[in-house]
Amino acid sequence: MPAIPLPQSGGQPDSPTGNPAGIWSFEFLALCGVSVLAFCNIAIFYSFYTYLAELGIPPAWRGPLLALEPFTALLVRPFLGRFLTLGNSVRFMRAGMALATLALVCYPFARSVPALAAVRVLHGLGFVTVVGGLMGTLTAVLPHEKSAQGFGLFSVTILLPYALMPPFVELVLPYLPGHGAAYALAAPLMLPAFLLLRPLGRRTRTLAAALHPAQMLKPHWAEVRAGLAQPGVALLILGNLCLVAAHSIVFYFMRDFAVLLGAGNPGLFFTCSSAATIGLRVMAGHLLDRVDKGRVLAWAFLGLGVLLPLFGQAGAPLLLLCMAVLYGTGMALTMPLLNASMLQVSPPRLRAFNANLLMVAVDAGFFAGPFLGGMLMAAGWTHAGLFSVGGGFMLAAGLCVLPVGREMRRRDREKSGEPEA
User: Which region, left, alpha or beta, applies to residue 10 given φ > 0 means left and ψ of -120 to 50 means alpha?
Assistant: First the structure.
C-alpha cells in the first residue's frame, strides 16, 4: 500500500500524529473496536473444514475452498495498496465490510463447489479491503517508540474473537440448521463497526490534511526494491509466512482432532490459547519494546516448533487444553515482535509499505497452510502428521529471524557507539 510516512516535525520524535507519543487515542481505540467486530467474521470459520465434509464436498476440493478466501486477499492486496491512502482508508474499510457482510449472508445458500468458491472470493475481497484500511491507519497513528506495545495491544483485538466465537458457536450450533447459519449470524456484528467508522473517517481525513503533500506520495518501485534489499526485510516476510502457515493448520484442523479426542466443546482449545495470548500481551506487552527481539523470537519459534508435533500425541482433552495455553503463550510473543522488528529494520519512508508486506505474508500463509493441509488429509495423512508439518514451518520461521536478530543487535551497537562483539 502507499507509504504513510511519519511527519518530520512537531511532537515527539516518531509520533506520527504530531502529538506527544501515546497509544490511547480515539483513533487507536476506534481501530481496535472495528478490528474486534471484523475478525468475528473470520474466527467463526474454525469449523469450515467440518462444514465442507458435512455438505459432501469431495476431499480434494476442501483444501482449495479453505484457501480460496486468503488466496483472493493475496492476489488483491498488492493492487489495493496502489490506491489506499490515509485519507481514504476509512472509505475502503466501509466498502470492505459491506462486501464481507454480503458474503456472510450468502454462506447458508452456497452448497456446491462453484457457489462456495464464489462466496469465498467475495469474502476474501471484502476482508482484505477492511484489513488494508485498518493496517494503513494503524501504522499512521501508532507512535514508533511504542510500536511493539501498540501492535501487541492491537493484536488482542484480533485474538479476542478467536477466544469467544468458537465456543459460542459450539453452544448455539445445536439450535441452528447448520454451520452455514452460524456464519450468517456474524453479519449483524458489522453494524456497530459502520457506526464507529463515521467519526473515525472525519479524524483520519483531518490527520491526512495536516500532513505535507510530499509525505503522502507513493514510493517508487525502485525505492520499494531497495527497501526489500535492506538486511532483514525479506527474511521477516518469509518468517511471517511460515508462522501463519503453521497457525492456519492449527486453526482449520484442530476442531476435528479435538472431537476425535472426545472434547465436549472443541472450541475451548481456541479459548485457552487466545486467553493465554491476550493475558501475556496485556500484562507484559510494555516489556516487548525492551527485550532483544531477535533472541526472543528465535526461542519462541523453537518452542512452538517442538510443541506443535506434540499436539498429535495428546491422549486426552485436558492435556490438549494445557498445550493450548503453551501455544497461546508462544503466539503472544511472535506476532507483535515480528511487526516491531519490521519497523526497526525498515527505512522510515517504507515502514507502512513493509508492514503491508507482512500482511501479504499473512495472506500467503493462510493460503498455503489450509491448501497443503487439505491436500495431505485427502491423501490419507493423520492430524498428527499435519501438526508435525506445522512444527516444521515454525522451525523454518526461527531460522529466518536468526540473522535478522544479529542485524538488529549490530544496529543497536552502532547507535550506542559500542564496539562490535
Answer: left
| pLDDT(47) > 70 | yes
> Which tens digit of pLDDT belongs to each residue from 144-198?
666 666 776 787 888 889 888 999 998 988 898 888 999 998 899 888 999 988 8
CA angle 1, 192, 265 (to 5 degrees): 95
Mean pLDDT of 286-301: 83
Q: Cell digits for 17?
A: 500524529
**Rounded-to-integer distance, Cα 381 and Cα 392, Å:** 16
What is the CATH number assigned to the segment(s) 26-210+221-416? 1.20.1250.20
**Rounded CA gap, 253 and 249, in Å?**
6
Out of 82-96, 172-186, 193-207, 348-362, pick the least confident.
348-362
Q: Tell me the helix, strand and coil percentages in the chain, rounded to 5.
A: 80, 0, 20
The enclosing H or E element of 26 equals helix 26-43
Going by C-alpha positions, the residue among 96, 35, 36, 109 that lies closest to residue 69 is 96
Domain map (residue ranges) of the chain: 26-210+221-416
- Answer for the pair 342, 354: CB distance below 8 angstroms, yes or no: yes
Backbone φ and ψ of 211, nearest 5°: -80, 150
